[in-house]
Amino acid sequence: MSEVARLMDIHTIVAGAGPGRKRDVQVLNKSAIIITLACWEAYVEDLARNAFEYMLNVASEPSIFPDHVLAVAGKRIAKAGALDVWMLADDGWKAALSAHKDEILNKYIVKGSFNTPSCKNIDKLYSELIGLTSASREFYWPGMSNDKAKKKLQDLIDLRGEIAHRVESSKSVYKKDVEGYQKFIKRLAVILHNRTIALIYARTKTMPWRLYRHGKIH
């Protein structure tokens, strides 16, 4: 996101900070939109991966994961011939769950459509990987309903696609659009992070990483 901020600094250098129509800066605004969505995509992926790995590392038994995650993971192992994957000795169940993680990430990120980090794709990824169901249902705050937030995220995805595929013929993007989407994505990131933290704490009774409050580490 610091790269987006730098693009906006260049925008001011080129076009000035005063009111009025700005010329020759569309490429900066459009580039900023693409980077902003790329940041969201990377954040969603990294948070899901880190949450799973933390839960697996602190787990003493497979029940630390919700039943529907174990059911999805168990089906794959059962096909390989294990009658009861969760009774595997020597932490074999951890290897089974780690393989499940690789399969889910491969499904949704490597070979899947997660280059469109929509609410639908986020919900599927988080549900199957760590058991966080309907992750996007908390995407709301005063003045922004859940429906409006989902539509705004889809609008950003659509705008990125239009810019990437049509470039010069895509609609105009203004500095205020970039700044608005930056704030929007940061809000979504905080909400998704907090929902993930809440699930991890509920399952493990531990906090997965240090939190910063009022300038101090807790």
Describe the structure.
With 218 residues, the chain is mainly α. The chain is built from 7 helices and 2 strands. It has a two-stranded antiparallel ribbon with strand order 1-2. α3 packs across α4 (92-110). The longest helix has 33 residues, at 26-58. The chain is elongated, with a radius of gyration of 21 Å. The mean pLDDT is 84.
Distance between the termini: 25 Å
Largest sheet: 2 strands, antiparallel
- Runs in which pLDDT lies below 50 for 5 or more consecutive residues are none
Report the total helices: 7
Helix content: 55-70%
| Largest sheet strand order | 1-2
The secondary-structure element order is HHHHHHHEE
Cα-atom Rg, whole angstroms?
21 Å
Counting helices, strands and paired strands, the structural category is mainly alpha
From the spread of the alpha carbons, the general shape counts as elongated
Total strands: the figure is 2
